Amino acid sequence: MTQQEKVTSGFEVAFGHQPDFIVRAPGRVNLIGEHTDYNDGFVLPCAIQYATLVAVSARADDKVVVSALDYDGQTDEFVLSEQIVPQENKLWANYVRGVVTELQKRGHQLKGCNLAITGNVPQGAGLSSSAALEVGIGYAFDQLCQLNIDKADIALIGQAAENNFVGCACGIMDQLISACGREQMAIGIDCRTLGLTEVSIPSGMTIMMINSNVKRGLVDSEYNTRRAQCEQAAAHFGVSHLRDVTVAVFEMKKDQLDPVVAKRAEHVVYENKRTVDAMKAFNKGDIVKISQLMAASHASMRDLFEITTKEIDYLVELIDGVLQDKGGVRMTGGGFGGCVVALVPEAMVDEISKLIEDNYQADTGLKETIYISGPMAGVDTLALEMA
Ligand code: GLA
Fold first, then answer.
1. What Gene Ontology molecular-function terms does this entry list (predicted)?
2. Residue 217 confidence (pLDDT)
């Protein structure tokens, strides 16, 4: 059964009629530029083929009724004209409630609706299943109520929902690429201006994502701590965000910083530069340079930002051992587990998959999952398939 068939039939079982339309919002993989987004810096993600689907129909009243197909059809229900509060025992529901709250805060007039949700973005894998859900819900209401919200604003609404309702102080990267991804293109994002630059993937290269399946604990608290440390460093340099600290200024003034804060800032300052350099290297097809930049990004996440795990480091070393300068590999996403991203010559995909299958579980006790995806388009509605 396709995802579309699943969401359509799940919707029909939950609500007894066909949906009016279906929204599809993708997850993402970040090629380079980690923990730079909330520092107003640069990132280089692309949307992937794994996505969240939301089937929608209008209701005559002002209720929102949600069926979560991946959670055994658990439901949530709330009334648009009453205050919407977080649910303590149904965390998935807070993404929907949060987006609705943020839309209302901005004065958008919403209509009641039935929603059924399913997705195949692996959860807790650093591939942004939450952002896909937020963007999917935002776009569903945009289409249902003909709000004509700019896609970048839908991303900002999703981010605000996560910041204010879910409690993770995330940046804008994940929601923005889910909203604005382009087929076959990675997108360089300037997270200060939200300017988007299309960046090509060198021909003959495949994007592999290898999920370590390390269950990510404490993610939000560690993430929020890193963000606070970056803000502390920015204040030391007398700027609003670390984006404004050049490598030269950093090197001159780093000694006066608390040593841990200095390490965090060093990661961000150099990662920004690496990301800008990577955009050029990708466009030029300079694989050797990409390889170096991705390796340096990983080492920096491991040693300075301290967000990798031993299983993730193991995967990166294993893959790097055979890939060498024929491609690049690094952890992707917020950290503390999740996925490694590898840019691999098509002809080496099988060899690398086999290498991981033969070694990872034997050496770590965890079984990997491997995904492959080229860059995909951002959120959109799907043409309804007639039964
Ligand atoms: C998570 C956040 C993003 C970004 C990355 C790290 O995915 O949601 O905003 O900060 O971590 O690059």
1. ATP binding; galactokinase activity; magnesium ion binding
2. 61
